[in-house]
Write a structure and sequence with these properties.
Layout: H1 9-54, E1 58-59, E2 64-71, E3 75-84, E4 90-97, E5 101-105, E6 109-110, E7 115-123, E8 129-141, E9 144-156, E10 159-162, E11 166-172, E12 177-185, E13 193-197, E14 203-211, E15 215-222, E16 229-239, E17 246-256, E18 259-262, E19 266-272, E20 280-287, E21 295-299, E22 304-310, E23 316-323, E24 331-341, E25 348-358
Parallel strand pairs: 2-9, 11-17, 19-25
Antiparallel strand pairs: 1-3, 3-7, 4-6, 4-8, 5-7, 8-9, 10-12, 12-15, 13-16, 14-15, 16-17, 18-20, 20-23, 21-24, 22-23, 24-25
Length: 360
C-alpha cells in the first residue's frame, strides 16, 4: 500500500513567508513607480511654469472700443495699450483686422516691464450703418497666442435716407398705394432739395419740408390706373450738398388686380431627372373686396399636380405644385396654370409656368 504524500511542516512554514514577501515586493515596486511618475509630472509642471514665468506676459487693459455714432467721411483713430509683465521681450508677430481698418503704428517688440501702443485708423467714407471690426494680435506669449480686440460703432451718411434708400409700394388697381422716405441732413450746412426726377407713368412724388434745411419727406403715390405688374425704377434727387449732390432712390412698385396670384408666373428652374419628384412650389390666389370666394385649378402640363386649400378668412387659396417624375418628359417645360373663379369680373386667371428637365 502506497503512503500518502505529506508536505513536511518545515516546508509549509517556508511557503507562507514567501507569499507575504512577494506581496511586499510588489507593493514596493508600485510605490516606487508612483513616486517616479509623480516626480516626473512635478518636473514637467515646474518646467512649464518656468517657461511661463521666464517668458513674456501680455496684458491688454482695453479690448473693446466703440466710437459711437459718426457721420460718413470721418477718420477715426484709436490706441490699444499692450503691457509686458513677463521676463522676456513680447513680440507682436502679426495683426489681422476687418477692412477697412488699418494699423498705422505698432511696436514690433515690448520689453519686460514696458508697454506699447498699437494705433488703428478707420476711414468711414464708404461705410454706412453698424460697423463691427475685429482685430487679432498674434503674440509670442505661450499663455496668450492670440489677443482679440473689437472696434465698433455706427456710421451715418452726410444725408440719410430713412428708413432705407428704397421704396416698396404695392396697391390694387383703382386704389393705388403710398410710401414715404425721410431725407435727413447730418451736415452742418443747410440742405436744399433742388430737383426730383423720375418716370411718371407708374407713380408720382411730392416733397414735404419738415424742417427747413434739415429734414424733408419724399412721398410716392402709385397711380391707380397705371400699368399692371411689378416694376423697378430710379428716383434721382439733386441737392445742395457738396459731398452728396445727387441721391439715388430705388422705387419698387407693384400694381395688381382685385383678384390676383402671387407669384404672377411660376419658374421651376432647371431640374435634374432624378430629382423631379422632390420639386414643390406654392402659388397664392387672392381676392379683395369679394365674398364666398371659390375657385378650381387646372393645367395643360402633363405630370403637373395641383392641390389647393382655402384660407381661414375665405379671401385666398394656397396651391401646392408638384411634379410626377414618371410622366414628366426631359427637356423644356412650358405651359400654364388656369385659375377658374366665381368672381364675375375675373372668371379666369392664367399663370405661365416654365422650366427645364435635364438628364444629369
Amino acid at each position: 500500500m502506497r503512503r500518502p504524500f505529506v508536505i513536511p511542516r518545515t516546508t509549509r512554514a517556508f511557503h507562507l513567508p514567501a507569499r507575504s514577501l512577494l506581496c511586499c515586493l510588489a507593493a514596493l515596486h508600485l510605490s516606487l513607480t508612483a513616486c517616479q511618475h509623480t516626480r516626473g509630472t512635478a518636473t514637467e509642471d515646474a518646467t512649464s511654469r518656468g517657461v511661463v514665468l521666464e517668458g513674456p506676459k501680455a496684458v491688454l487693459p482695453e479690448v473693446q472700443f466703440d466710437f459711437g455714432v459718426l457721420t460718413s467721411g470721418a477718420v477715426i483713430g484709436h490706441d490699444f495699450l499692450v503691457r509686458n509683465e513677463g521676463r522676456a521681450p513680447l513680440s507682436i508677430q502679426k495683426v489681422s483686422m476687418t477692412t477697412p481698418l488699418l494699423v498705422t503704428r505698432m511696436p514690433r517688440e515690448v520689453a519686460p516691464g514696458s508697454e506699447g501702443k498699437i494705433h488703428f485708423e478707420l476711414e468711414t467714407t464708404k461705410l454706412a450703418g453698424k460697423f463691427d471690426g475685429l482685430i487679432i494680435l498674434f503674440l509670442n506669449d505661450v499663455a496668450l497666442r492670440q489677443a482679440i480686440l473689437t472696434f465698433t460703432g455706427h456710421v451715418i451718411p452726410p444725408i440719410e435716407l430713412s428708413p432705407m434708400p428704397s421704396f416698396f409700394v404695392a396697391g390694387q388697381r383703382g386704389h393705388g398705394g403710398r410710401g414715404a422716405i425721410e431725407i435727413v441732413n447730418r451736415e452742418p450746412e443747410p440742405l436744399h432739395i433742388e430737383k426730383v426726377q423720375h418716370r411718371t407713368d407708374r407713380f408720382t412724388t411730392q416733397l414735404e419740408t419738415l424742417k427747413q434745411g434739415q429734414r424733408y419727406r419724399l412721398n410716392l403715390t402709385l397711380r391707380p390706373d397705371g400699368p399692371l405688374g411689378k416694376n423697378a425704377d430710379t428716383i434721382l434727387v439733386s441737392t445742395s450738398s457738396k459731398k452728396m449732390p445727387s441721391l439715388k432712390i430705388d422705387a419698387n412698385t407693384y400694381l395688381y388686380e382685385r383678384v390676383h396670384t402671387f407669384p404672377e408666373l411660376v419658374a421651376l428652374g432647371t431640374l435634374r431627372a432624378n430629382n423631379v419628384g422632390e420639386a414643390s412650389l406654392t402659388l397664392m390666389i387672392y381676392q379683395e373686396g369679394g365674398n364666398d370666394f371659390q375657385l378650381k385649378l387646372s393645367t395643360d402640363i402633363p405630370g403637373l399636380s395641383l392641390k389647393w386649400e382655402r384660407g381661414p378668412a375665405g379671401d385666398r387659396y394656397q396651391a401646392k405644385i408638384t411634379l410626377n417624375a414618371e410622366k414628366m418628359l426631359r427637356g423644356a417645360i412650358k405651359g400654364s396654370i388656369f385659375v377658374d373663379t366665381n368672381d364675375p369680373q375675373f372668371p379666369r386667371l392664367i399663370v405661365p409656368i416654365y422650366g427645364q428637365i435635364v438628364e444629369h
